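INFO worker-7 received task bundle
INFO bundle size: 2
INFO processing item 0
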Amino acid sequence: GSPAVDHEWEPPLPYVSFANHPDWEFVGRDDSLAQHLPLSTPGGQVLNIVRCLRGPISFIRATHQWQTAAYTGQTATVQNHIENFCGFWVNFNFIPISVNMAGFGDVQSFESIDFNKRFKVRCPNPRFASDVFHQRQLEHLLSASPEGFAITQGGTIQVAESEWLPAQIEVMLGFFQEFFGQVPDFVWKELGVWPRPIPKQED
């Protein structure tokens, strides 16, 4: 499910690690990633790459820069473009769910009026959504207040746009750790994922 699954088998480039995150790697530039990541435009430069390709929740973050030319008669005006990309993915099965983003299935309603006003949860399996979004999970989302995310069938997690500085990545990883940590044991067993891939959140 990783957007860089092919790339990680290539000879690794020299990288710099992070003091507080020994599993994170920093690479200044790797333009070959433009062939593997779902960027808005192919080609260009891929810079400031931060990645963690191990663990139940992985990610890759990059700054993508490219140029386009607009012609007026014989004069060309070059425009510079930039986007910050960050993709997350999981190495376990999970039924697709989206929160405040486009997704599959109908919008699900829950027992919290405040939650239903702030979040639109879509899932093709209403029972699964009800099992995952129990009262503690609703409280977690109301407290964390994520902009939006969508877990796809292939395990990729799409997230709302951001600059994706290391601190923002850390917050998002922490949110997903708690989100999956709130999923009950019986749900993981029904998914055929046991022992659970993310430790259970204790009361």
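INFO item 0 finished
INFO processing item 1
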Amino acid sequence: MARSFPSDVVIIDTDALVHARFGRGKKGLRLVQAKPYRLPEETFTPAMVTPQLANEPALAEALRRLRNETGRWDKVSLLLPDSWFRINLVDLPTLPERESEALEVVRWSLKRTLPIAPEQLRVSYSVLSREGSAAKVLVLSAQEATLSALEKTFAAAGIDVVLIE
């Protein structure tokens, strides 16, 4: 784990979360502490692409309890299940060099493959290969509303989410 990333990680699923703390050992990183916490039913409800955070107070309470039991932490990397993301390989005839224009082209290309409007998604992409102006792109997307609600709940608990993976 690079120095720029926090040693605390929260792994979230629809029914539970785990707080894990890593430390440096003689041979690299080692797990120092792991604390599971069961979330109340319906904290997350099914939705298109990414489950929806339906009970923010339940998640906030879980975070408060975990912080009380595991010590002080104010930065965290957040790990979510792969099933909460859509992964697409897209062949684009043209991919602009400018980041904002390229993101719009990538979003437009998702209209054909996703059941919801691309504007409702947080999208990240990586160019796998280029051939002239054409590009093969790996696109990762999740519901913006869910990711924003998670970030907001963590921020209200005094925890800065520095990475969502």
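INFO item 1 finished
INFO post-check item 1: Strands lie at 8-12, 16-25, 28-38, 44-45, 52-53, 75-79, 86-92, 121-131, 134-143, 160-164.
INFO post-check item 1: The chain has a mean pLDDT of 91.
INFO worker-7 idle
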